[in-house]
Amino acid sequence: MIVKLSLGELERARLVLRGGSVLDWHRLDVGSLDECLAILRANGFDLEDEGDRSYLKNMRLSAIDYLTRNFGFSFLPEIFNAPSAGDLMLLAAGKDSLRRRQACVVLKVMHVLHHAEAMELKSRLNIAEHELYHIVEDKAVRVIEAMKERGYPIVDFQCSRKTRDSIITKLLHKKQGNRALLYDMIRFRIVTATAEEIVPAIAYLSIHLFPFHYTVPGESRNSIFDFRDFIRRHPRISRMIPEFQVDLMYENEMRGPSNPETNDTFRTASFVVDIPIRLDDRQLELWAPGARLSSRVVHVLAEFQIVDEASHAGNEQGEASHVRYKDRRLSRVKERLLRGRMVWNDKAGE
Asked: Which of 110, 146, 195, 318 is 20 to 30 A from 312, comparing alpha carbons?
């Protein structure tokens, strides 16, 4: 599967693994309109729905209006009058530098605008967060089953939610206390046969389960393999290095310090994403009755841990085990409760 990875798939997987942001990209690496449509579907859009097409058009015009008012930008007719979001995405991947740059700028602002709309809709929902978790879990199960049918060597898949005690302990452990944001209220663990399958698996997930561009920047960790070594082991992939949008010298730019309770022998690739959930008419009527809404997509934060089978077995033993990890965390929280201040190193208390 590695040899089949396109530049776009590799760029998406790399962004997820390094915790980067599409706001730093200057090009969208897609090769066809079908690929663009797949990305839009991953965002929760139904491209046969007139309402969704109208919403995407309004997002584009709103982005152009924002850029014109705040920066004095002007845009080519091809950007302003793009027939669809897919066509705009193709312009962002095209060879014409001016059209590509303008399309990229508009797409970046659309990305932010849509996220804001999704947050607004979620704030209006009369529903407990855990009800949305059920929908996310069902979506994840369907995608993982599809991956297995396609031949991806998924050895194990697990979903878990934080218990009340775990939530309290983590908040007591964080610098910010009860003001902290928890990214791992729902967590998925995927075990692949070998470490070589991790990048192809993430490339698939980033266009079928969650949009790669809704990876939470700075929240990715990878202690299983060095990405630079990974691509250099594969000659075909190595030839793509000059085309990368972010130079390999910045590979670890977005990573914070590791958690001090995590043992050095613990191996995993983890990241946090906003998973889009498209609400149907029945759900909107039940959870947001009477609300005038421009979007029907909400996002649910989830943490993913992807690990190969050998590393997973090692993680279950000795000091790397979850039981030992939990003991170390409880010990530090107990110290904070009894004596006060703990010592953190930047994000080490996360």
From this structure: 146
Asked whether residue 47 is domain-assigned, the answer is: no
Instruction: State yes or no: pLDDT of 59 exceeds 90.
Output: yes
Average pLDDT of the residues of the chain: 88
Q: Which residue range forms the structural domain that includes residue 9?
A: 2-21+127-349
pLDDT-based confidence at 178, cuts 50/70/90?
low
How many domains does the chain contain in total?
A: 1
Query: How open is the CA angle 104-109-112, to the nearest 5 degrees?
Result: 130
Q: Which amino acid is at 271?
A: F
- pLDDT confidence of residue 316: 82
Please write the tens of the pLDDT for every residue from 68-92: 999 999 999 999 999 999 999 999 9
Largest CA distance in the chain: 65
pLDDT of residue 321: 77
224: domain CATH number? 3.30.460.10
Let me know if residue 262 belongs to a domain: yes
Q: Which two tokens stand for residue 213?
A: 């561009």
Distance between CA atoms of residues 97 and 282, nearest Å: 45
pLDDT > 90 in the chain, percent = 58
3-state secondary structure the chain: CHHHCCHHHHHHHHHHHHCCCHHHCCCCCCCCHHHHHHHHHHCCCCCCCHHHHHHHHHHHHHHHHHHHHHHCCCCCHHHHCCCCHHHHHHHHCCCCHHHHHHHHHHHHHHHHHHHHHHHHHHHHCCCCHHHHHHHHHHHHHHHHHHHHHCCCCEEEEEEEECCHHHHHHHHHHCCCHHHCCCCCCEEEEEEECCHHHHHHHHHHHHHHCCCHHHECCCCCEECCCCHHHHHHCCHHHHCCHHHCCCCHHHCCCCCCCCCCCCCCCCCCEEEEEEEEEECCHHHHHHHCCCCCCCCCEEEEEEEEEEEEHHHHHHHCCHHHCHHHHHHHHHHHHHHHHHHCCCCCCHHHHC
**Which letter, b or e, does each residue of 15-37 get, where b requires 16 or more Cβ atoms within 10 Å of its Cβ?**
bbbbbbbbeebebbbbeeeebbb
Quick one: average pLDDT of 223-232? 87
228: its two tokens: 């630079």
